[in-house]
Design brief:
Length: about 350
Amino acid sequence: MDSNTKTVFRTQVRSLSVSNLDAPAEADHIEGINPPELVTRLVGHGETYDLLMQQQELGRLPGGILLHGPKGIGKATFAFILARSILLATGDETAERINDQIRSGSHPNVYVLRRVPRERGVGFYNDIRVDEVRGVLRKLHQTRGKSGNRILIIDSVDECNANAANALLKTLEEPPADTQIILISHRPQRLLPTIRSRRQAHSLRTLSDTEVRDVLQQNATSENALNSALSHARGRPRRGCEALGITNNGILSDLTSWLKTPAQGDTGLMLSIAEALANKKNGMEAGFAREIILDWIANEARGLALEKGTSSLNQRLASANQLWEKTNTLFEQTDRYNLDAKHALITLFDEITTYARQ
């Protein structure tokens, strides 16, 4: 592949609108923001992209690739742009034709595993289920629809339930010829060790403020809105996009204020925040609040880890790690079992207050 062709999907910019395209449904789609399969310009992560393309040119691209890093930094976007480039290098179609098929979800050599909409009721299933995995894997072993490699993107592998994850193992160990299975993970430490050991892993990092601004500016309505979103993003474009859609910043300001002195246990403010975030009309704010809380805990643990290891510091670091696990578990169980959101938040705020008072 010559240098001009290599850069087609890294520099190409299109004016795409979710409203006029039949984009596949996503459980975590942000209204008004293009899903990863519609984005054709890679911002950041260039070093990893170049490495994988070099492997492709040398015929050494592995069958299993794990892209891991914080949620919202562009891993899925990276995966689809990588898929386009692999198809361009191994098939006989133009970049334009490949791009059109991926945009419409109709490329016969590209498969995507995500949580799917429920057959009954509204919303999406909580997991990627084993039948969905088996169905895609059967297709990977059939005769391909056209020339070029086949690509399976799992977004995200963290959401595979136990049976689905186990169903992946044999195929990851011995992928079909000329096939890439691209796993996206926000928490690779929770993956089965056998999954982690059967792929080439690439850690993607948060973006610079300049790169995040580049991503956000096409969706910001004003410079003030852009600067505010940039301050919330902290290297994660998705978080910046979420910030652009927030209409009630007062809730998040109250939460940030409460987290400055959680040991004081301001019960009135705590209850007010929990009630506001549990209100369904504040769904975007509630999701953003989770990120703020998790960031606060992560910063606590990071700061303690950097200090000299006395016995008391080690105990407090262990408590911070336990709080991190409890918080993630509480969020997951609240979503999975449709628990009362207000009660869950009050429970979490009590845990944070207890930790802060140690």
